[in-house]
Amino acid sequence: MFRYFPARQNLHPHKHRDYYIAAFTFLCVAVCLITDANASLETQKMLGLSGWLILIGWLWGENKEIRVQVLIAVMFATIGEHFASPFMEGYIYRFHNVPAYVPPGHGMVYLTAVALGRSGFFVRYARKIAFFVVAVCGAWSLWGITLASQRDAFGAVLFCVFLIYLFKGKSPLVYLAAFFITTWLEIIGTAVGTWHWAEIDPVSGLTQGNPPSGVAAWYCLVDAIAMGGSAPVIKIASKARQFLLRI
Asked: pLDDT digit string (tens) for 59-72?
């Protein structure tokens, strides 16, 4: 199945910036979520403001397409957060809200997935990384449905969805990168109590872990929407601009 990840690919020009973005986001995620474990709503708002400033700073060095993708990712993920958490209660934050840092956080997570996915390391070792991710996530899913105290049937379903994204999607390296950053944030966030997943998924009725083993699939959906929607949005914006100039 790893024929989708050829051993040799055209390497993206090496950019230290891609690794800086990833390292900084991994660090920020840990600091933010650990801080929010015992924070007030006011602190959440300050974390949100800091997140926006950081995201805008990183986007300053990206092209228009990436900026539009991040904007779409933030909008789509924020809508999804309000539906899945306060409304459906599939997972619940401490204050039963969507913290202010979550929207810019989704932007940073998406940008990190893109940065790692285009990095020389990921391109060069694509097949080995894919094998590692499938093995780890597969073992996690198997543990969730056999040995975990909180059974994770829905996580196994999400793992299968993740495999579809990985081997049939248009940007497998981005999805591989998304696995690392999203697993990192989900494990930290649930471990410190910043949010917790319901034992029963409200839509499917299946048991789910805290977090579900295949949770990266949800983030892959955000990534796919962002990448697929950027070209139409840019085209519409260009036509609108030309129309306004003719007025």
From this structure: 999 999 999 999 99
